[in-house]
Amino acid sequence: MGRGAYAALTAVVLLLAGSAASGAEPPAADKAESRVLPGFSHGTVAVEGTTLHYVRGGSGPPLVLLHGWPQTWWEWAKIMPALAERHTVIAFDLPGAGESSIPSGGYDKVTTAKRIREGVHKLGYTKVSLLGHDTGALVAYPYARDYPAEVVRLAVLETPLSGFGLEDLYGVSFHLGLNQTAAPVPERIIDNDDVPTFLGWLFSGARHPDRIDQAAFFSAYSSPARRTAGYEYYRAFAGDAANNQANAHKRLPMPVLAMGAEFAFGPLVANSFSQVGNDVRGVVAPDSGHWIAEENTAFLDACAELFFGPQGVPAPSPELANCVA
User: Fold this and answer.
1) Lowest mean pLDDT, pick from 7-11, 80-84, 199-203
2) What are the strands of the beta sheet with 40-47, ordered from one edge?
3) Maximum distance among all alpha carbons in the chain?
4) Tally of domains within the chain
5) According to the UniProt entry, where is the signal peptide (predicted)?
6) Distance (Å, whole) CA 103 – CA 192
């Protein structure tokens, strides 16, 4: 097996694996710790079935950031200050993660996208660009597909789409099977004391694990309820795939940046999203594993500046050519 294919397949070990859900908000002691990012403010917004936590800062056209697992909005902390120089940046915690409340259901990506969209509207924005990583990218897709007039540009990082390639990789990593297994199997296998070992092992597969604030995410998933919320996102995968396939005729009309990492999914992201979009630009982030925003922040920032910026700005290097607006 070639190096690129092996890297793409082993990236499944790093992809999305599950975290946690009960039907009620956990005690205050179990909530994720608020982290301070200079120039940004925290807030919450009530939406149908839950309350979303967000962090907002900057000025300019709105750019919504959606994180993956096993992370929270904090995965974007290194890149948010630079993005905020050109955009109003709104980084949400997905329902059940971080400081967002834990809904009793609705972990399919269509429902999650509707909740994020409702939060966006209540914050006063009707047309935004989206940047999603991992689980967040799976949520960003139905947002853009179902509300195309409200999404200017879409960038997806490090995941093939359910129904269009992700399920073909299930057998490579036990995590995808485990996290989709009905309760209480994953819940009883991964206990509170196991979190640093389990997540630390996942992060150790990064190209640069030392660049990831692992302790922040160990803390964020130290609650059994939050781990279950993550599992529920996985348990919804089969329904997500069926929905995506049934609605694939609603091709994405906006430009789509599909970025994989050199040492993870590489071109598989663009190969997947090209099946549902009319203008998909494939990019491979060099010297990075699954967590691009943290492992190669400078490259992601340079690409985002081009893609979400004005048209006509040339790429400074060949590897950024497909990032051009």
Assistant:
1) 7-11
2) 40-47, 50-58, 88-92, 62-66, 128-133, 151-157, 256-261, 280-285
3) 54
4) 1
5) 1-24
6) 21
Q: Which residues contact 179 (CB under 8 A, 6 or more apart)?
A: 16, 17, 18, 186, 230, 231, 234, 235
Give the CATH number for residue 177: 3.40.50.1820
* DSSP letters spanning 267-325: THHHHHHTTTBSSEEEEEETT--S-HHHHSHHHHHHHHHHHTS-TTPPPSSGGGGGG--
Give me the residues paired with residue 62 across strands: 88
- Domain containing 255: what range? 3-323
pLDDT tens-digit profile of 121-178?
Answer: 999 999 999 999 999 999 999 999 999 999 999 999 999 999 999 998 887 677 788 8
Distance from first CA to last CA of the chain, Å, rounded? 35
Residue 118 in contact with residue 74, Cβ under 8 Å? no
Closest among 121, 4, 132 to 71, alpha carbons compared: 132
Contacts of 270 (CB under 8 A, 6+ apart): 258, 260, 280, 281, 282, 283
**Phi, psi torsion values for 98, nearest 5 degrees:** 60, -120
